[in-house]
Write a structure and sequence with these properties.
- The chain is α/β, with parallel strands linked by helices and about 200 residues long.
- It has a single domain, classed as Rossmann fold.
- Helices cover about 35% and strands about 20% of the residues.
- The protein contains 5 helices and 7 strands; from the N terminus they run ββαββαβαβαβα.
- The chain has a 7-stranded mixed sheet, with helices on both faces.
- A hairpin with a 3-residue loop joins β3 and β4.
- About 40% of the residues are buried.
- Bound molecules: guanosine-5'-diphosphate and magnesium ion (MG).
- The site of guanosine-5'-diphosphate has 20 residues, from α1.
Length: about 200
């Protein structure tokens, strides 16, 4: 995909605030600080379309971005950051699940996990939940530049074992080196043209 334009559309917490459903949508989900904003910026070749953060978990909004007038990227709020107040954490589930279960134009979710970590209950919950709603998922392991090649291979095997996702369905990615960018775009294009 050659990205010619990428523009913020709007932020929302509930369906009445979503932009009108039209273009195919790709949602991006993962723990706070996993590298979600960095991944979206890398895909659209923009440094600051989506704000990256050193204080994770602050944004609890669903952000919509128009890409090439052909696709909408949806940046979902991150989950699982312990320092976020419980009241805000509790809002995550209904907000994100309402979007994921009800949005008719949603074509796929990109689910990100940090390649250095073992997936926890929250990651596994979202994986199960997306499967339950039969939402196609592109699985991405972020920050691959932080590990050696040998470590990456070990973590890929471990993450595949703990989640049940086949290794060849998981794309290692780095926003720093852009490893994996083309594979993610291919998956997005394949899925968004399919429906
Ligand atoms: N080394 C490295 N750092 C990354 C990568 N992706 C994100 N980061 C860093 O991780 C932190 C969180 O990134 P951000 O994209 O804001 O994560 P988000 O909270 O999931 O949106 C920032 O300090 C980023 O610079 C990556 O691929 N490699
Ligand atoms: Mg972010």
């Amino acid at each position: 995909m050659i990205v010619q334009s990428a523009e913020f559309i709007t932020s929302a917490t509930q369906p009445s605030q979503y932009p009108p459903a039209g273009l195919p949508e790709i949602a991006f989900a993962g723990k706070s600080n996993v590298g979600k904003s960095s991944l979206i910026n890398t895909l659209v070749n923009r440094r600051h379309l989506v704000k990256t953060s050193t204080t994770p978990g602050r944004t609890q909004l669903i952000n919509f971005f128009n890409v090439n007038d052909a696709l909408v990227f949806v940046d979902l709020p991150g989950y699982g950051y312990a320092k976020v107040p419980v009241a805000i954490q509790k809002r995550w589930k209904p907000m994100v699940e309402t979007y994921l279960s009800g949005r008719t134009t949603l074509k796929a979710a990109v689910l990100m996990m940090d390649i250095r970590r073992v997936p926890d209950d929250k990651d596994r919950y979202l994986i199960q939940w997306l499967a339950h709603y039969q939402i196609p998922v592109i699985y991405v392991l972020t920050k691959s530049d932080k590990l050696t090649r040998a470590q990456q291979i070990r973590q890929l095997a471990l993450i595949s074992d703990t989640t049940g996702i086949p290794q060849n369905h998981i794309i290692p990615f780095s926003a720093k080196t852009r490893t994996g960018k083309e594979l993610i775009w291919e998956a997005i294009e394949r899925i968004s043209h399919a429906g």
